[in-house]
Model the fold of this input.
Amino acid sequence: MKTRLIGALLAIALVGVLATGALGGQAKKAATIKVGVSLAGYSTDFWSSYVAFEKAAGKKYGVTLVGPISANGDAGKQATQIRALIDQGVNALIINPVDSAAIKPTLDFAASKHVPVVSVDVAPTQGKVYMIVRADNVLYGKSACNYISSHAKGSGHVAMLEGDLASINGLDRKNGFLNCMKAHSNLKVVQYATKWDTPTAVNDAKTALSTYSDLKGIYAHWSGPVPGIIAAEKAAGKFSKVGAANHVVLFSNDGTPQEHGWIRAGEEDATISQPATLYAQFAVFYAKQAVAGAKYHAGMKTDHGSKIVTLLGNLEDAIVAPVVSKSNVNDSTLWGNFKRK
Done:
């Protein structure tokens, strides 16, 4: 997947014709730029892949990455780590916030030190950043709802295994799913708060399987619980392949190679391909653009199919994240298939 913003962006901005709405190109050449990277964690396949893609993007754009440093899900630890990165003299920061609200004092501190911030995957609900690189997570939930409601047979319950609702991603996925499900009175949603904890999510799936004999679907906000859910269905004697009459529809988010494998095997129905490649590439790109002083505004279109929008007072490159099912799981442009090339 070869994506890049149109090469003349900065030059266009300087001559004042940015109002055309097209943007793209390579980041402005500059002296060596140090970009500090703080992630909530990177133990999952998605985030370990992101780290590899980000290293490649650093080379592509000629910047030095300091990190990534993992906060291991601890917002206080992340704040301390980011201050340390700033003390080390980084020119810009890429942050994947542990907590969308708790990150505000850290963003304020970075601003006071004139260190621009790019937020990746998770948006802050408070505080200012240069750019958010993220997909529309409300659409994630809506897509899961549309898929499950159109494939579930008859009436019954649907279990939603929620991410951490302190993260705007978890909250958006939840709200997108619930708002869409209001139109499907034959399906009743049962919510489970897991805070992105895989063992908790798997145990909640087991509870749903044993409690609701009419369970029609399971929506997991991320990919981590999927193998445990499949194993739990098999252990309970409730597993059947996609398309079978009594199949429990299983939909997740991430688009990892493992999810693609389960979809090919008929064990999982679908997922959202959260584009790790584009997240990594454009997080680094915008960090370099921030140092260069490039300006953006809402409404600008990109050559990778997205649009610059406003989210909670900040600009966001709303990256496109497609649904992946049996029909398109072998698409070579999906990041989850890169390891199969």
Summary: The chain has two domains: 5-136+275-321, 137-273. The longest helix spans residues 45-61.
